[in-house]
Amino acid sequence: MNEQQKNPNLVDFIVVRWHLYAAIAYVFIAVLAGLSYSLQFLQKYPFPGVEYLSPGRMRMVHTSAVAYAWLANGMFGILYYIIPKLTGHRVLSQTLSRIIFFIYNFLVLGSVVLILAGHAQGLEWAETPAILDPFIALGLGLLVVNLITPIIKIRAQKMYVSLWYILAALIWTPMVYVMGNFLPQYIFPGTSGATVSSMYIHDLVGLFVTPLGIGMVYYLLPVVMKRPLYSHALSIIGFWGLAFFYPMNSAHHYLFSPIPMWTQYFAIVASIGVHVVVYTVVFNLFATMAGDWKQLITNIPVRWMFFGTLAYLITCIQCAIQVTLSAQSIIHFTDWVVGHSHFVLFGTFSFWITAWLYYLLPKIWKTEIFSGSLANWHFWLLALGISIMQIDLLAAGVVQGMMWRSMAPFIDSVVASIPFWWVRTFSGIMILSGELCFFVNLYATWQQSKRNRILAPNSEVVA
Amino acid sequence: MNFIEKFSGIFLIAGVGLFFLAVIGLGVIPIYMLEKSTPQLQLPATVPPDFQPDYASPTEYHQALHRGRDLYIAEGCWHCHSQYVRPTANENLRYGPVSTPMEYQSSLHLPQLFGTRRVGPDLSREAGKKSNDWHFAHLYQPTHVVPESIMPGYPWYFDVVDGVPVPNQDAKAIVAYLQWLGVDVIKRRDTVQTYEQQILPPRE
Predict the structure, then answer these.
(1) Is B7's CB within 8 Å of A154's CB?
(2) By the number of CB atoms within 10 A of the CB, which of A2, A7, A232, A332 ranks highest?
(3) Please, which pLDDT band fits residue B183 given cuts at 50, 70 and 90?
(4) In the predicted model, what is the mean pLDDT of residues A274-287?
């Protein structure tokens, strides 16, 4: 609060709010697109025969909305808060941040429309239409310039661990985006393209979402628990382990493919090396929580961060198992991988962002969260929903892989998967209802904040 | 060792250095090896007999292949159908010869469509497995030919003439593309049947 008083315009709360509101709106698009796509697997798709809502296009809307709309908006909003707070300097230009917000979200909406109109780019996690890619790269470049300026101003000082991750991610993200969207689209065909593409698929998670997510949690956990971070040395090992191992994981998305085998072996070894990162980060976070576990019950953000960290540990242990060639032989191409990626992007990073939303929104609105009971429902519906989905899809993956290897006709593996797909849709409904609880709770909190402002009109309004 | 907690160390070593180490080691070098050792794959010089009524010249046929590929991307087909055969899990028996870099070095593989999920079967050896008519029926409504299929239908690629759906140019382009996939690898289709074809009665 001291910094805030010294420099009242340190954080531009308007742009923080815009990004967070946009993120909350997009999470519904993402969940609804995913849920309707899952109904196709049960032959119960709600819009059969409608060209612009075809399930194949809906799937691309689902993944793009998760990565570029929900996660990115949430993270950008939080960055506009963390970076000025940690550096004590404003971002380059608050007008620029608002312009970037509009450019970025215009492009995100445009890409949803163009994907539905049939202009998707044929690259996994990069389905954003090729025509929009240069503008997104430009927007990301502006964003980085805007956000990196306060970090450059403190270049002579040692930085807190969150800033290491954020700084590195800010440098990586535009490079990764340009590499993954232009090289395989225009220059390298076939196997060479797959080599670049696999790098992009992994780097999007490993060098954009993961470092920003970890950086956010390293900031929020000590703040809300009012406890110091357990170990500085562990955070150094964790960060440098991530910087070293994550970029090399690339080819593990195309194992047993025509990519040179030594590249694949290298990627496998590097993927197992990721354990160094994971155990240090997870131990550091859990050790910070240890001794004050009752906050899991009393403190809403801590609960979300705990589940997110647990999910991070589980997915990464899974990663080192499934990346081996013997496991790949069975589970590659199956629902196992789908379950894994849901647990990463939803179980871990969405939970961490939600922890931030529960911390930041009441703070912005200068009020308490409206209903603890709705917050409980939100947490348990999402936590149970994603856990059921994960276990269900892992099991489905093993069944599919075994049936393919057994040489049963392909359609038999589809028929055998139908019960699993029912459970998956059910878990999706749980997640949607959880998000609805969240939305209702936030709306009530917002109304409550307006009432408070009328009751105490002289109180300072942050935003 | 102060620099590892400061701007310079993180910017130069982690941000730029380690990233480019990975890009060079696992990107540039394998791509250099691949591009140097893999000859360019030519598209078919003649129009296959099945498509001669539709496409007069090889140029038109090649345009149709590209159009079919673009629609294959736009509809997200590649999210449910992979395009490579792995040397494991009996895939060579189910689909055909194991994939090699050579067969992917063509303009139709830019961008690559390897795929990472098989909700439906792999398509990299699809050429000649089914007739064109089967493909049209399947594209219009998959459950008409495979009752248990969960693939969506694509009726907007068909014009209704006298109450009967007739494939339009786009549907023909998609089928031309599907019938091209793996054509260079499976010329021996007549003599070597895949395991699935041997044990299954042909579907009508």
Answers:
(1) yes
(2) A332
(3) confident
(4) 91
d(CA A346, CA A342): 5
Structure tokens at A37: 């796509």
d(C-alpha B117, C-alpha A184), whole Å: 19
The pair of three-digit structure tokens given for residue A285, joined into one six-digit string:
């976070």
Tokens of A34: 């995913």
* Chain B interface mutation, best of A172, A191, A210, A422, highest count of B Cβ atoms under 10 Å: A191
Question: Given pLDDT bands bounded at 50, 70 and 90, which one contains residue A306?
Answer: very high
A312-317 contacts at long range (C-beta below 8 A, 24 or more positions apart): A312/A278, A312/A281, A312/A282, A312/A344, A312/A347, A312/A348, A313/A278, A313/A282, A314/A343, A314/A347, A315/A340, A315/A343, A315/A344, A315/A347, A315/A348, A316/A274, A316/A275, A316/A277, A316/A278, A317/A275, A317/A278
Phi–psi pair at B167, nearest 5 degrees? -60, 135
Q: Which residues of B touch A189 (CB under 8 A)?
A: 104-107, 109-112
A387 reaches B (C-beta below 8 A) = no
pLDDT digit string, tens, across residues A143-167: 999 999 999 999 888 889 999 999 9
Asked if the peptide bond before residue A184 counts as cis, ω within 30 degrees of 0, the response is no
What is the interface pTM, i.e. ipTM, of the complex? 0.92
Helix (H, G, I), strand (E, B) or coil at B96: coil
**3-state SS class at B166:** strand
Is A415 in CB contact (< 8 Å) with chain B?
yes
A168 touches chain B (CB under 8 A): yes
